[in-house]
Task: structure prediction
Amino acid sequence: MMTELQHNRQRVLFDRPLIERYNQSGPRYTSYPTAPHLHEGFGPESFRQGVRQVNEERPLRPLSLYIHIPFCDTVCYYCACNKIVTPDRSRAERYLQSLLREVALMGALFGRDRPVKQLHLGGGTPTYLDLEQLGRLLTALRRHFWLMEDESGEYGIEVDPREMPVGTLHGLRQLGFNRISLGVQDLDAGVQQAVNRVQSLALNQRVVAEAREAGFPSINLDLIYGLPLQTERGFRNTLEQVVEGLDPDRLAIFNYAHLPQYFMPQRRINAEQLPSPAEKLNILESTIHYLTAAGYLYVGMDHFAKPDDELAVAQRQGVLHRNFQGYTTHGNCDLIGLGSSAISQVGFFYAQNLKEVEPYYQRVDGGELAIFRGLELKPDDLIRREVIMRLICDFQLDRAAIEARFGLVFADYFKEEMVGIERMKQEGLLEEQGSVLYVSPAGRLLIRNICMVFDWYLTHAQQTKVFSRTI
Result:
């Protein structure tokens, strides 16, 4: 029988005093160690050696492919992605040619014996490529990897409704995609003007309707809170229109981090128009109340899903995972990143491609992998990664399971960290039953803070990365 804490794993409680006390900067933990700790001493040969070892030890382990398409037609001022903004569509063809070469190079390393359980195209704007170009990409992927043809794989693509002529969704479905994610951000006309992304509700409705007609079983929408001119009432209007008019299966509600010193497009945002920290919390609190009342469950880290959605089901079953793509139901896969800036997670190492396209072209066109930095995980990294991933995915941690898996005594190994854990227990973020630590409903919005307790690099390594605030 499930305990009350287990049963309420997907319930969230907004505790403003607790949030204000813990609202600091911290990693989002799409990996541990986090990407800033990748180093240039790890290159193509290190990657090849690692892949050979993985192929020998786990020759049938499934794969997940992430493909980065960096191009956008226009710039969204809030954007912090690795992108190239240009109306010159011919540049996409140049990129595609090198990408196809990289697909062949990577395919030769991994072979076609390992099924691709997950495929995701991100960016940028993946639909900057037209259907013919996307068709060539999928043909190459099928030639060099084992893509599932029976709908058992999760094959997704991020789409910009402004880049979706009538009929495009049917074309994507015929290519094999069965998941789409739409960037919406906000439906208020003033906010859209302030961030240079004008996108009407009618357009979003047309694209979602076409996706459902084409047979896409899962539709995700991205929204952002903290943008200029946003208010609690205005964002609530957006939520009502999204839920009632679009009825997405999943929602990602991202917290806008204003870092114009790092991201040039953000310099076009009028900082005086940004909502105050107090108003941002009002928006978040209102969002949580509205979505949970509408039947969505809080999966974690900005994500909400319907109870029967695969993410929500995977979390209840304890098999949810998190990687460089965010939450995923395919945690048993090696992740291969393709395209400029893409990151791979294979075996016990991470590897990232060159970020700028010209060096990427030179490397790949010369017959070499585009990897320029990476990291091989140490035994301590593996232990801490498992602790952090279980907390951030399950909202609970079975210390006895960690002890059995890694042959350690939890209280001894994490003696320093237990000071912070005890404090969080006293303040109501964590609760304890036997060997299991449960994240309380009030602690779930602060899951990044809880994970940070176990992050060795935050206190022992030099930090140059400026992280967004945890709330």
The CA atoms of residues 178 and 216 lie 5 Å apart. The chain has two domains: 1-33+379-471, 35-338. The mean pLDDT is 93.
